[in-house]
TrEMBL record:
Keywords: Hydrolase. Pfam families: Lactamase_B_2. This is Metal-dependent hydrolase, beta-lactamase superfamily I. GO terms for molecular function: hydrolase activity. InterPro entries: Metallo-B-lactamas, RibonucZ/Hydroxyglut_hydro. The lineage of its organism: Bacteria, Pseudomonadati, Planctomycetota, Planctomycetia, Isosphaerales. SUPFAM superfamilies: Metallo-hydrolase/oxidoreductase. It comes from the Bacteria.
Amino acid sequence: MEQLVTAPRRLVFLGSGTSTGVPVFGCECAVCTSNDPRNQRTRPSVLLSFPLGNLLIDTTPEMRLQLLREKIRKVDAIAYTHNHADHLFGLDDARLFPKYLGGPVPVYCEAETEASIRTVFHYAFVEKATTLPPGYVPKLQFERVAPGVPFQVLGQNVLPLRLEHGRFQVLGFRIGNLAYCTDVSRIPDESWPLLEGLDTLILDALRHEPHPTHFCLEQALGVVERLRPGRTFLTHLSHGFDHGPTETTLPPKVALAYDGLTLEF
């Protein structure tokens, strides 16, 4: 049986904002005009660094800029939470990844996300695209995943988690005692046991007011109270949160994520 690698692991928040990003185009609120760099939020994504390579979760429209900002020189695999634009539309820039991998990029996702990728980036899958050298179109190797069924990537066990995002079904991911749960408005009954015993929980908290497809702050804190992880970082944040003042109101061991925040787990 393949031995999984358990050496120290690192997570960096490439983006911690909502689908509009922060600042919001045309907005002149106190957060959008803030000088606090933690209020500058690109679309939501994280990169997990393991001894055997880097796993990227979602490809945001700012993916290229996020990776350059964090000096990430190689992505070895991609996993998708779902197929919405703010999590998907940077994929074209992944056309450079195979140059450093020596082959297609492994992509771990559900069937619906694969279908969206094949539609939105259709030019990467036409027959003539297969003859192009690396760097011209994304070259991908799809690996189907299912909630509750672990898969192995880069020497790690990754457990997909079923989450509900309004009327959409999406995935969260658990790696060891860390779970990444963005874009969620409800945790189904079957997923609660899979979130027990966490050291680190990363959880959606869009704004103060309730929202039909995301947890608001009160709902997210209710999840934290039920699961009682060692620490929690809230992500997918709107311009409703001014980073510094908001953090002073949060319970112990709960913090707002920000772009560039790095964790070891």
